[in-house]
């Protein structure tokens, strides 16, 4: 019988300011060290992260570190899936932390996935912690809600048997992983109460648009199309995958606006020649999407103006919504 109940998998890339707080929170727990392991994957850090992690490895028997080239978070999490020994895997980001003495409530499950009821959001600079609730699994699927990976405990044998892994070396890898595991799960349970502290960072590198990050959305959309063909079994799951596919394409288009025109044109041309992606975008039967495909085929300049206008109104509505009003 496996004595390790939980594997906490923590990808780390240049997190010297936060990794100690993360590890301290993972160690201040209410189950013995022999019952869980902390797998820290050093994803090609160039700062002092590795030295800090190694101090914990030397001091605590359940802390393990593996160093590899930077395959972004997906590659680090895949290492965790393949090398974890726990019954369940919990993916934790290196700049976040978890509640003290919470792990005893995360063991003893048998389902493929265990969903948290929510998490806390925290922003540096004195903004207080606020709760971010999450609905039940059926409601998530019905409303096509995006879910972050730290809100899900994954049964290790479920991931291995179904061969469910992250796309490596791309940003926003959760976009593809979450709908895939949700569709494949045969059983789901829930954990009540927030135990995860999610750090909001406006200066996060993921918020800065680059050609690589913009193009990664196209890569993920292509993977999602393949996932839909492979895993989807009915209309409900087709619609669920379609939501994520359209979200990835929209994110690609809106992010492209932040790039210089020459770089934007190169990426837009990759979308233009991908007939499968274009058709999936048209299949939503929305007039706005049809207009974008028409402009994509005829004028990158006019498409850019269309996207910029749409993005301005979208951001304006978000801002008004935060103030409690609507446009």
**Please, how many domains?**
2
Number of helices: 12
Shape: globular
Main sheet: which strands, in order across?
3-2-1-4-9-6-10
**In CATH's first tier, which class of the largest domain applies?**
Alpha Beta
CATH architecture of the largest domain: Alpha-Beta Complex
How much strand? Answer: 15-25%
Mean pLDDT: 90
Number of DSSP strand runs: 11
Uncertain residue ranges: none
Backbone structural class: alpha/beta
- The helical percent reads 40-55%
The largest sheet is:
7 strands, mixed
Describe this structure in words.
It is a single chain. This protein has 327 residues and is an alpha/beta fold. It is built from 12 helices and 11 strands. The strands form 2 sheets. A 7-stranded mixed sheet has the order 3-2-1-4-9-6-10, sandwiched between helices. Strands 5-11-7-8 form a 4-stranded mixed sheet. α6 runs parallel beside α7, α7 packs antiparallel against α8 and α11 packs antiparallel against α12. The protein starts with 5 loop residues before the first strand and ends in a 5-residue tail after the last helix.
List the helices and strands and how they pair.
Elements: E1 6-12, H1 19-27, E2 36-43, H2 49-59, E3 63-68, H3 72-83, E4 88-91, E5 97-98, E6 113-116, E7 118-123, E8 127-133, H4 137-143, E9 152-155, H5 156-162, H6 174-184, E10 188-191, E11 196-200, H7 211-231, H8 235-256, H9 261-272, H10 275-282, H11 287-298, H12 300-322
Parallel strand pairs: 1-2, 1-4, 2-3, 6-10, 7-11
Antiparallel strand pairs: 4-9, 5-11, 6-9, 7-8
Helix pairs in contact: 6-7, 6-8, 7-8, 7-9, 11-12
